[in-house]
Design a protein that fits this description.
Layout: E1 8-13, E2 16-21, H1 32-43, E3 51-56, H2 75-93, E4 99-103, E5 106-108, H3 110-117, E6 120-124, E7 128-130, H4 133-136, H5 144-152, H6 154-163, E8 167-168, H7 169-175, E9 180-182, H8 187-198, H9 203-218, H10 221-236, H11 239-249
The structure holds 3-methylmercaptopropionate-CoA (MMPA-CoA).
3-methylmercaptopropionate-CoA (MMPA-CoA) binds at residues 26-27, 29, 60, 63-68, 82, 85, 106, 108-110, 132-133, 136, 140-142.
């Protein structure tokens, strides 16, 4: 693609954008430059992109914050740094398209925070999850405190940070860190398969899943049900929904479970 950043590689596969973390020698540790590139990429997706896959070059997804950049930071710079991560990862979670993370090897610290901002996570058998911030004497700053308890609960996140416990792919899938567990070396293929599938969804359905469902989950039940009714009404009024329902009624649509 024309605008080639330095920490990321971008590649198009039809209407799917493949975003590769490209610092394998540093286990794809996230420098400030990498975070700015993520923010830029997900806030200005090329036209025609309908889903994205994030993965890492080499053996690991991401070793988290680039610790070599942490030493000199004072409190004010630390606050701004954390807010930069929040902004960048919000563009992933609340951006224009579904994002699938293909995980392998280390998914630790800020790497897990990045993965948690994706909508679907696929972990291969080599994947291990950890929050070493506790060991390093720091705290999460890339959104984990808000996102991870929603995936695995406060108790599990507390345990991961207090003890430095490492969680393997099987357990990670069981407790909700990933929705899919696949064989070693297979997470990118599976993530691409999922991305191409979800790219075919009605845009309004994907929009509602990305932007409305998490807000309903955070709302009171009464407010959530009202938001649900409004979005249901909007979605079913689109031409796309009408066409899909027509296909089903004319027996031209796939049945549930049909390949
Ligand atoms: C790094 C980083 C990094 C590797 N920042 N340089 N994250 C961590 O505490 C995880 C730290 N990393 C590790 O525990 C290990 O590197 C791994 C388990 C991920 C991989 O081990 P391995 O044996 O494959 O690689 P390595 O030999 O440890 O590392 C290879 C190089 O990458 C080496 O540099 P080199 O110049 O000596 O070759 C490492 O120093 C470098 N490297 N990880 C900088 N993270 C918004 S707040 C978020 C807070 C956090 O994310 S804290 C958690 C940080």
């Amino acid at each position: 693609m024309s605008d080639i950043p330095t920490c990321l590689q971008l590649q198009r596969d039809g209407d799917v954008l493949i975003v590769t973390l490209n610092r394998p020698a540093k286990r794809n540790a996230l420098s400030d430059a990498a975070i700015l590139e993520l923010e830029h990429t997900f806030s200005q997706l090329p036209s025609g992109i309908r889903a994205a896959v994030i993965h890492g070059q080499g053996e690991h997804f991401c070793a988290g914050l680039d610790l070599s950049e942490l030493r000199e930071r004072d409190a004010e710079a630390g606050l701004m740094h954390s807010r930069l991560w929040h902004r960048a990862f919000d563009h992933i979670q609340f951006g224009a398209v579904p994002v699938i993370a293909a995980l392998k090897g280390a998914v630790v610290g800020g790497g897990l925070e990045l993965a948690a901002a994706a909508h679907i996570r696929v972990a291969d058998a080599s994947t291990f999850f950890a929050l070493p911030e506790g060991m390093r004497g720091i705290f999460v700053g890339g959104g984990a405190a808000a996102r991870l308890p929603r995936l695995i609960g406060v108790a599990r996140m507390t345990d991961m940070m207090m003890t430095g416990r490492v969680i393997d792919a099987t357990e990670g899938e069981r407790i909700g860190l990933a929705q899919y567990a696949v064989g070693a070396g297979k997470s990118l293929d599976k993530a691409l398969e999922i991305a191409h599938q979800v790219a075919k969804n009605a845009p309004m359905t994907n929009y509602a899943l990305i932007h409305v469902l998490p807000r309903i989950a955070d709302a009171s039940p009464e407010q959530g049900l009202m938001m649900e009714a409004l979005v249901a009404a909007i979605a079913q009024s689109t031409g796309e929904a009408k066409a899909r329902l027509e296909q089903f009624l004319n027996k031209q649509a796939k049945k549930v479970g049909e390949a």
